[in-house]
Amino acid sequence: MTIGLDEFEIIRTYFSPLSKGESGAYSLLDDAAKVKFNSSSSTIITSDLMVSGVHFPLTEPANYVAARLLRVNLSDIAAMGAVPVGYTLSLALPDNINIEWISSFSKGLAEEQELFGITLLGGDTTKCSSEMVLSVTMFGEAKDNSVLLRSGARVGDEVFVSGYIGDAFLGLSILQEETVDSYNKTHRYLINRFRKPSPRLELGEKLIGIATSAIDVSDGLISDLGHVCSASMVSANILFDKVPVSKAAKLTAFKNENIRKSLITAGDDYELIFTVPSNRSGIVKNLSLELGINLTKIGNIVNNKNSQLVSAFDLDGNIISLDRTGFRHF
Amino acid sequence: MTIGLDEFEIIRTYFSPLSKGESGAYSLLDDAAKVKFNSSSSTIITSDLMVSGVHFPLTEPANYVAARLLRVNLSDIAAMGAVPVGYTLSLALPDNINIEWISSFSKGLAEEQELFGITLLGGDTTKCSSEMVLSVTMFGEAKDNSVLLRSGARVGDEVFVSGYIGDAFLGLSILQEETVDSYNKTHRYLINRFRKPSPRLELGEKLIGIATSAIDVSDGLISDLGHVCSASMVSANILFDKVPVSKAAKLTAFKNENIRKSLITAGDDYELIFTVPSNRSGIVKNLSLELGINLTKIGNIVNNKNSQLVSAFDLDGNIISLDRTGFRHF
Predict the structure, then answer these.
(1) CATH number of A7-145
(2) What's the confidence (pLDDT) of residue A328?
(3) CA B119 to chain centre
């Protein structure tokens, strides 16, 4: 069946149950939700929008689309060092969407809500004629009103990154290669990293009072570190070979030098980049052990002497030229 | 010019200034906004999404699109009896959008922010390939934590509506008639009612403690009153001839009986429908004088005896059959 007159039935059947955790959501049947945020905290608000065909392939199963949509927003909450609470969801759905898609999408949302302890608070559903547009506004709480900002990096700080960089880019590439008939274990790992990025919520929270700045990798390591540098009025030097890459990515990409370079300019990993004064790097090492997450030093913050915000070097100290320099344009 | 690499420049030039009222918006350059909501109030959250070609004609000037987008969301805040505070804005813009459009759109936002005392708190901008999708999440404060709900209507309550019904439908029809070369005064009034609906914020606030339920007219008088009835488990009888219609609408529509009927099933007026116990109708009369807004009694709440949520009658007590009965489907 297609949506249309039964929009309210769809809300009642598939979306209302997702708001059960919050009585002020009025089962999504009123004009708005009434929420009492914790008065000893500040509320963190972030919005991310996804367009089918732009942010995910049209062939993606709906439950994975749901997971990625929430995790991308949760990652912004993580990058502020906050704790997620709930979200609103607005959907523009093409006429030909079927009820199976909506059912699978809502199941995906339900699983993620359970996993991350969040609740649907409200939203809007409307028709469109072509691309699907999914818009989430996510709410979190900043304990003691403290957050991690982009603007706190100082000259001499060390630059760290969590997890591995480039997996999501390779996973998406594999999904887009229609010639692949069956995926091996390596492929499945990489695809999963695209579909279900891990928002680093626990790490973000622990970095409050330790890191001087943080951002999540959505546009790409170089570009996002560039955002930090721009906001902090500094530059960064990174060592290309120190950028942490998973075994699966090495297996897949290291035959090709260009693809290898692409890993640090492609995005979608939703790992955290953060800066830490050098006398706190021991704390970061302990944090890595405590959380069981790779935290790798990849470079240093330096004075901003020219327009170049981020420079990458090889182990011999030679500068590496990168094809994509979109990060210079803001 | 088209958007693309200069996305950040666009944010800095056109959208950052709109966030000046809130230091926690970090000039829209961080991952999220940090907002401290008033701890003695509850926070009201509502989301509305607009798609070009579906919710407004593609030919609409950008400043009017901005005004309508905010006002539609403000109307949901009004229908809860709350006071607006700020909003997040997510945009999916086609590649061929030009800088003049964005400039005019941001000017429209700035004017509305000034008028309604609200601030841009954050958002997201992305590309799409065809339709423009505009998504707003609006925040308000419910003083003393009290709100107007849809679910409070009781048998015997009187049904009121603010302003005039049907203007926006006629205004949109005129905009869509490409044969119209020059608009007369009547046309201009009706078009303006579509482009710049008046969210009834002051009225909503005053109705706290007086009205038993409220909703804004977005889907149409019959359909939206049906939402109230459904949530309150009652029915409503309305007198067709009592539905308030503007002079301009009468001039334009009353030659045609079918168009006249359409006025009460078409939406977009963003007037408030509310129910009041009959012993409080004097208070409503005083409120109408105080605010200078027409508040018209159009019917009564009755027992819900069958599936018909809203019935319309003529002055002789004969039931009026309406073509569009979409309101029965939820």
Answers:
(1) 3.30.1330.10
(2) 33
(3) 19
